[in-house]
């Protein structure tokens, strides 16, 4: 299932990213802002837990998100600014990292690094700004499921319709929160209109 929240703030921030005159600093900052809005939407139905805390009137019990039940996974490297933003909001979450690059001949994702621990019983939030063919996201979902994830939510910024369809077909139980679904993929499997290579733009490697 995918959720594509409609909000002028989100639309405007996403379209800001398409401007290639943005510095890498502003590009990453804009991604931070978008990620926080996506997290707001993605955690809407998260079940709260009671927590006993010390208040000005003595000990009392209030509802909180149990952050230790959340694992945030980044697909390197374009997802790093999203990761940073999300663990600012959820500082008690566990982090994991998957290194994947797309083979430009076959367009298939190739895993080169796996630093994801046991996910048994956890809610796993996978972040990656781009969903082109959907191959990288499907592979990341498969990995966290193999590691025991109970629930998987993905936060993504721009997708192609083909990519969203592929992930939904393969993993109907996963919630994909997507800021913007663009028009199509081109013959080189780039999202049109898209924003170019998000990793290169975030880290000045154009
Ligand atoms: C981009 C993006 C996704 C992937 C999407 O990463 O961040 O991980 O491509 O493509 P797909 O849906 O067709 O699999 P990229 O390979 O450019 O690596 P980078 O983040 O290191 O730049």
Keywords for this structure?
6 helices, two-stranded antiparallel ribbon, alpha/beta, 32% strand, 206 residues, 12 strands, binds 1-O-pyrophosphono-5-O-phosphono-alpha-D-ribofuranose, globular
Question: Could you write a compact summary of the structure shown?
Answer:
This protein is of the alpha/beta class. The chain has six helices and twelve strands.
General description of the model:
- The chain has 206 residues and is of the alpha/beta class.
- 33% of the residues lie in helices and 32% in strands.
- It has helices at residues 8-17, 24-42, 80-89, 135-146, 161-170, 198-203; strands at 2-3, 49-55, 58-64, 70-76, 94-102, 109-115, 123-127, 130-131, 151-159, 175-181, 184-185, 191-192.
- Strands 1, 4, 5, 6, 7, 8, 9 and 10 form an eight-stranded mixed beta sheet that branches. It has a two-stranded antiparallel ribbon with strand order 2-3.
- Helix 1 (8-17) runs antiparallel to helix 2 and helix 2 packs across helix 3 (80-89).
- The model has no long low-confidence stretch (mean pLDDT 96).
- Bound molecules: 1-O-pyrophosphono-5-O-phosphono-alpha-D-ribofuranose.
- 1-O-pyrophosphono-5-O-phosphono-alpha-D-ribofuranose (PRP) is lined by residues 75-78, 100-102, 109, 128-137, 163, 189, 197-199.
């Amino acid at each position: 299932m995918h959720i594509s929240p409609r909000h002028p703030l989100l639309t405007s921030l996403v379209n800001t990213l398409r401007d290639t005159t943005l510095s890498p600093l502003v590009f990453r900052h804009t991604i931070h802002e978008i990620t926080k809005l996506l997290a707001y939407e993605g955690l809407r139905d998260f079940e709260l837990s009671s927590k006993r805390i010390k208040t000005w009137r003595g000990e009392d019990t209030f509802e909180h998100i149990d952050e230790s039940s959340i694992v945030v996974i980044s697909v390197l490297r374009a997802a790093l600014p999203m990761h940073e933003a999300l663990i600012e909001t959820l500082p008690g979450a566990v982090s994991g990292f998957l290194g994947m690059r797309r083979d430009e001949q076959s367009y298939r994702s190739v895993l080169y690094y796996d630093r994801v621990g046991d996910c048994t019983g956890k809610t796993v939030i996978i972040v990656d700004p781009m969903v082109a063919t959907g191959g990288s996201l499907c592979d990341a979902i498969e990995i966290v499921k193999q590691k025991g994830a109970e629930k998987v939510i993905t936060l993504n910024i721009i997708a192609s319709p083909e990519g969203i369809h592929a992930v939904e077909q393969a993993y109907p139980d996963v919630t994909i929160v997507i800021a913007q679904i663009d028009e199509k993929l081109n013959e080189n499997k780039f999202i049109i209109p898209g924003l170019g290579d998000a990793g290169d733009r975030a880290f000045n490697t154009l």
